[in-house]
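Standup notes
- DV: blocked on the single-chain target, sequence here:
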Amino acid sequence: MQGSAAAATPAATHAAPAMTVGAFKSPMAKKPGLWEMTIDMPDTKMKSVKNSVCVDETVAEKWMKAAGQMGANDVKCSKHDVTPTATGAVIDQVCETGGRTINSHIELTTISDTSFKQSIKSTTSPPVMGKSDSDVEMTANWMGACPSNMAAGDMEMDIPGVGKHLVHMSGAGKVTVH
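- DV (later): unblocked, structure below
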């Protein structure tokens, strides 16, 4: 994926939120539209990334099945346990993609029907760029309806030092970066 932060750090490969499992539905799955996510990665050079993603229920389900890896067709999860809590959910997963195994512990806290946060602790093997452990904090806020230039599954990525890119996701899992 040209111009993407996703390949740059282990944290970025799984910072996207879990969506729907059984009786649990994340705020994104309950509230379709444009969600703005701020992903804080203090142990990386980028420190913080801001993305906006256009979500509908179909995208939420696809994202969940791919462990939050939009556009990645090769994600296979051997474990994906979701435990609902009084304020959200705890998600433990083990996924493989691109020849790497990612063990993640995610704590999702619902703030309101238009806001939530996640704390993500992950270990990647083999390491990415010499790093195997990552701690990521993400906040997400519903911004309203998706703008006319974005379809469900599209993501606008604002990467420090690179700029903004609109990533279009096709139904076939193909990614186009503008």
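- Follow-up: Residues 1-22, 172-178 have pLDDT under 50 and may be disordered.
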